């Protein structure tokens, strides 16, 4: 039932039937604070990894950095991982399985992050601006890490807001907990361009949390480089 509904949704998306995969979905970031999120590694060194700011822009004095201003509550409020020595990934307290996800991000020159579905399966976030399509790898922006390169390079310049729209199917397990079906990215759009369709992932793509299971959090990589995220919405598909 779920699979047929997901299939129908994908056809609609590919036909231009929706602007965003998670239109009218559950808001995961409220723009004011980090309610609903927790650090993967929480200690004195990592507790300052993420903060909420009102606006993020490329640093004019150093294009390898972003500048965050304000304390949130604005239309462009973002979760900001600035320049710090020791960072931590951050994840939702709530867990999800089959879902549609919309998320927007900004990186400076040369920076690196990632969006993990279920804390397991990473869509790479990277400054890949200007790289030719025929040289793309799974490690480029929009790539399903260690699995598949994006079909085209839809990257914008550093300092511009970008977006992923994802339709995702979680792995399936039997009553004994044995996996019977792999997870699958039904579709991924990057800045409105289709870059993946029906990509199966056999297991965690690297840097995942624990073993695979039926549900898991949305996790944002914060142990690599400077990045900002905003407008994060999810629409669970279970039970539909």
Outline:
Helix content is 5%, strand content 36%.
How would you describe this protein?
There is one protein chain. The protein is mainly beta and 240 residues long. The protein has a single domain, classed as Jelly Rolls (Sandwich), CATH 2.60.120.560. It has one helix and 17 strands. The protein has one helix at residues 2-14; strands spanning 26-27, 37-39, 50-53, 55-58, 66-69, 78-81, 90-92, 99-106, 112-117, 121-126, 162-169, 172-173, 179-181, 183-190, 193-201, 219-220, 227-236. Strands 1, 3, 6, 8, 11, 14, 15 and 17 form an eight-stranded antiparallel beta sheet that branches. A hairpin with a 3-residue loop joins strand 9 and strand 10 (121-126). The termini are close together. Residues 1-19 have low confidence and may be disordered.
């Amino acid at each position: 039932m779920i699979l047929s509904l997901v299939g129908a949704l994908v056809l609609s998306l590919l036909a231009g039937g929706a602007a965003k995969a998670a239109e009218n979905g559950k808001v995961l970031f409220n723009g004011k604070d980090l309610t609903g999120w927790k650090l993967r590694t929480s200690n004195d060194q990592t507790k300052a990894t993420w903060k909420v700011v009102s606006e993020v822009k490329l640093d004019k004095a150093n294009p390898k950095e972003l500048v965050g201003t304000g304390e949130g509550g604005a239309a462009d409020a973002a979760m900001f991982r600035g320049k710090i020595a020791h960072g931590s990934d951050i994840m939702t307290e709530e867990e999800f399985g089959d879902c549609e996800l919309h998320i927007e991000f900004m990186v400076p020159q040369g920076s690196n992050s990632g969006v993990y579905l279920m804390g397991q399966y990473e869509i790479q976030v990277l400054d890949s601006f200007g790289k030719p399509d025929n040289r793309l790898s799974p490690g480029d922006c929009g790539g399903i890490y260690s699995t598949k390169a994006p079909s085209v390079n839809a990257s914008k310049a550093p300092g511009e807001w970008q977006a992923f729209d994802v339709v995702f199917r979680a792995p399936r397990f039997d009553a004994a907990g044995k996996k019977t079906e792999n997870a699958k990215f039904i579709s991924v759009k990057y800045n409105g361009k289709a870059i993946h369709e029906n990509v199966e992932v056999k297991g965690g793509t690297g840097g995942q949390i624990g073993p695979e299971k039926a549900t898991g959090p949305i996790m944002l990589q914060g142990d690599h480089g400077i990045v900002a995220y905003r407008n994060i919405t999810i629409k669970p598909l279970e039970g539909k």
